[in-house]
UniProtKB/TrEMBL annotation:
Name of the protein in question: Dihydrodipicolinate synthase family protein
One matching Pfam family: DHDPS
Keyword annotations: Lyase
Origin: domain of life: Bacteria
Record bears the keyword rRNA-binding: no
Keyword tRNA processing: no
CDD domains for this protein: DHDPS-like
Family of this protein: Belongs to the DapA family.
Length: 300
């Protein structure tokens, strides 16, 4: 198969949409589609339903399916859809097949939720999912610093549809080594820690980055992408400085309010409710005003 269109979509801002809830706590379908249209109208070319910013682990199986179907329907031919899948192998395979049936072109495989992960087991886990959907592009979401480039290379050799890696280990030097050991050109390397890490990862091999901030301010994220593509690191760092405090709030206390900050900003803009599910929680009152003040000066 020709995976080049999917590879091109990953070499961009890969948006991770939030999942809004209504007053009864159910997925707010109309608001979700409106938020997606806002991203698509801004020029976003790749979206990941059921990502961590979309509260993947707080959604039921039925809700994850619903979000997948809503995203494919709204995106149409305007953007590539990269569906988050995970949990045990059977559940991940079932979700990947559902993504294929719904019309998505790719799946992102969440880091295996297991206390004991070996190199060989990591390869086997992803291989089982990739081989179940050979028509889809597959992108492992790598958060484990112990997974080596050689393991990723073995996975790529076995599964040609593994076309990219979302690398989310906060160590640019480690990323540079892993990417080269795995195959810098074999995979599309996506900086999985969003805008704060995008410049450093871009400098050593990433050609795309994920973003939750893009839900709030698409132009800001796309401005950073443009600067990085142009090799204009001073311009990229100007954006970095602009969004630094926002992203620091998201990352604080082991990312306790990663999604809460984004939803709070969207609530301040009148775009969705701030509601979030346990084990996350809504942003504390003192920080709500700070978030609202932060985004006032952005190009939104």
């Amino acid at each position: 198969m020709d995976y080049s269109p999917l590879r091109a979509a990953l070499a961009d801002v890969v948006a991770i949409p939030v999942t809004p809830y209504d007053a009864e706590g159910a997925v707010d379908q109309d608001t979700y589609r409106a938020l997606l249209r806002r991203l698509l109208d801004s020029g976003v070319k790749a979206v990941t339903p059921n990502g961590n910013t979309g509260e993947f682990y707080a959604l039921t199986l039925a809700e994850r399916r619903l979000v997948t179907e809503l995203t494919v329907a709204e995106a149409g031919d305007r953007a590539a859809v990269l569906v988050g899948v995970g949990h045990d192998v059977a559940t991940a395979v079932e979700a990947a097949r559902h993504a294929r049936e719904a019309g998505a072109g790719m799946v992102m495989v969440h880091q295996p939720v297991h206390p004991y992960v070996s190199q060989d087991g990591w390869v086997d886990y992803h291989r089982a999912i990739a081989e179940a959907v050979p028509e889809l592009g597959v992108v492992p979401y790598l958060r484990n610093p112990l997974i080596e480039g050689s393991a990723i290379a073995r996975l790529g050799e076995a599964c040609p549809n593994v076309i990219g890696v979302k690398y989310a280990v906060p160590d640019a030097a480690r990323f540079a080594a892993v990417a080269r050991d795995a195959g810098l050109d074999r995979f599309v390397w996506v900086a999985g820690l969003a805008e704060l890490y995008a410049p450093s990862y871009w400098a050593v091999g990433a050609i795309g980055f994920t973003s939750g901030l893009v839900n709030v301010a698409p132009k800001v994220s796309l401005d950073m992408l443009g600067a990085l593509r142009a090799g204009d690191y001073p311009a990229a760092m100007k954006v970095w400085e602009q969004i630094r405090r926002f992203e620091d709030l998201r990352a604080a206390q082991q990312s306790a309010h990663n999604v809460s900050v984004v939803k709070e900003a969207l609530a301040a803009l009148g775009l969705c409710r701030r509601d979030i599910r346990p084990p996350s929680s809504a942003l504390p009152e003192p920080q709500r005003a700070e978030v609202a003040a932060l985004i006032q000066g952005w190009a939104i």
